[in-house]
Specification:
Number of helices: 1
Low-confidence stretches: 18-27
Helix content: under 10%
Largest sheet: 5 strands, mixed
Mean pLDDT: 87
């Protein structure tokens, strides 16, 4: 599993390694992140195998991060963000965002059960897609969080500078929707709340 730069440029070198190599890479600093993003003195990934990332920041010291698995399912990977010093690590669906030069401060946990990661150019966004909603990461962190958009199976099909087109399953209505890239607001297609009012799934 290698890191993905997409169209963004992180001034660091990153690579993912199997968890059993975490203490054998030969670096000075190992940082373990709990499922809430806090740094653990004694790292433990209770809900599955962690995602392990070797990071070499530009002008900084190399370090290895161990990120606790989300445990609820999803993808794992390492992704550049629009913030030049920020990195997004997804560990079994759990998405962490952190500064590569300040790993000891911990990470922000911004989404879970992430099944797809995509980008938007202009505005520059990293999209973390769950089966029901989307979180967009911008240059300063979380840019927006969508409302619930789907009953299930939400997927980004295409993006442009202005819009994001998604497929979804709502057991009725249109099979695709369009949301505004700048805000995450739905602008076209059948709305989830018109088919499934908020108290329907309570």
């Amino acid at each position: 599993m290698s890191w993905k730069a997409f169209t963004f440029h992180l001034r660091s070198t990153c690579s993912s390694t199997p968890s059993f190599r975490a203490t054998a890479i030969g670096v000075d600093e190992h940082v373990g992140f709990d499922r809430d993003g806090r740094v653990q003195e004694q790292f433990e990934s209770r809900w599955g195998a962690p995602t392990v990332v070797e990071v070499v920041p530009a002008g900084g010291e190399r370090w290895v991060g161990q990120f606790a698995a989300g445990g609820l399912g999803g993808i794992s990977g390492v992704f550049a963000t629009p913030g030049s010093g920020q990195l997004c690590v997804v560990a079994d669906g759990l998405a962490y965002v952190l500064e590569v030069h300040a790993a000891h401060r911990g990470a922000g946990v911004v989404h879970d059960q992430v099944g797809q990661v995509e980008t938007v150019d202009g505005p520059d966004l990293l999209l973390l897609v769950r089966s029901t909603d989307i979180v967009a990461i911008g240059s300063a962190g979380v840019e927006w969080r969508s409302s619930r958009l789907a009953l299930d199976d939400l997927r980004v099909l295409s993006t442009s500078g202005a819009t994001i087109t998604c497929s979804l399953d709502n057991l009725g209505g249109t099979s695709t929707i369009t949301i505004a890239a700048a805000t995450g607001e739905q602008v076209d297609g059948t709305r989830f709340d018109s088919l499934w009012p908020p108290d329907a799934l309570a």
